[in-house]
Design brief:
5 helices, five-stranded antiparallel β-sheet, 2 domains, single chain, about 240 residues, alpha+beta, four-stranded antiparallel β-sheet, globular
Length: about 240
């Protein structure tokens, strides 16, 4: 998966209009196992849930969001209800991951993230890739957020891990496993992105007000729905000069 992205990156200097920024490059699937308190039977769920990630942007389009990685088209996105029938967990949320797409004239796609709260003791393993080095942007585009996995314990304590290689992490009831898929890299200078496109991204919840300012040079008012055009022009001019 990373090899495919690397080939595209190598081609970018020669044919930038016909290549693509990096994508999240993994199927982001840990698996859980244990004993179901409802039936007393052993359970194992290798398809715990596959939150699709972001694809890289191109010279003409934003990247696709919440999409399976480039060489795993046969991977299924298990419906929440089907998973909860088979495995003793509750899905707290399943949503797009704000700011996960790399900034650019064309924005990288966003990853999805989900939280599954256990209702019985169990364990989970993970072999997730691309958790350290983020999906890169090209032609001046910014990097995306990488894949990430963490556990929120029943008492609220959050455990974060340096990578996605985890072996038999013990879970107790009310512990939650949070899986965050990475985004796709951006394409082109973020300060060249259409101002209205940035505003719409903020309104839709794809990009935060802070990211709009810091990455795209777009200043929004306190409501996050109106652009301060004078401040935006000044900030973008400063960024380009730098």
């Amino acid at each position: 998966m990373t090899i495919v992205d690397t080939v595209f990156r190598a081609l970018a200097p020669a044919i930038p209009d016909h290549t693509i920024a990096a994508h999240h490059a993994d199927i982001v699937v840990p698996y859980m196992y244990g004993t179901d308190h409802r039936t007393g039977r052993f359970f194992i769920d290798p398809m715990f849930g596959v939150p699709g990630g972001g694809w890289g942007a191109t010279s003409k389009h934003d990247g696709m969001s919440a999409t399976i990685c480039i060489n795993d088209g046969d991977t299924h996105n298990t419906p929440v209800e089907a998973g909860e029938v088979r495995v003793p967990y509750i899905t707290e949320y399943y949503r797009l991951r704000r700011d996960s797409g790399g900034p650019g004239k064309y924005r990288g796609g966003m990853g999805a993230e989900l939280s599954r709260r256990m209702q019985a003791p169990g364990f989970f393993n993970s072999q997730i890739e691309r958790t350290v080095f983020p999906p890169w942007g090209i032609e001046g585009g910014g990097d995306a957020m990488p894949n990430k996995i963490k556990v929120r314990r029943a008492d609220g304590a959050m455990e974060e891990y340096p990578n996605g290689k985890l072996d038999s992490i013990q879970l107790t009831p009310e512990d939650a496993v949070i899986i965050s898929a990475g985004g796709g890299g951006g394409f082109g200078d973020p300060t060249e992105r259409d101002v209205d496109a940035v505003k719409l991204d903020v309104i839709r919840g794809y990009v935060s007000v802070e990211k709009a300012r810091d990455a795209y040079g777009v200043v929004l008012d306190s409501t996050g729905r109106e652009v301060d055009h004078a401040a935006t022009e000044s900030l973008r001019a400063t960024r380009r000069a730098e």
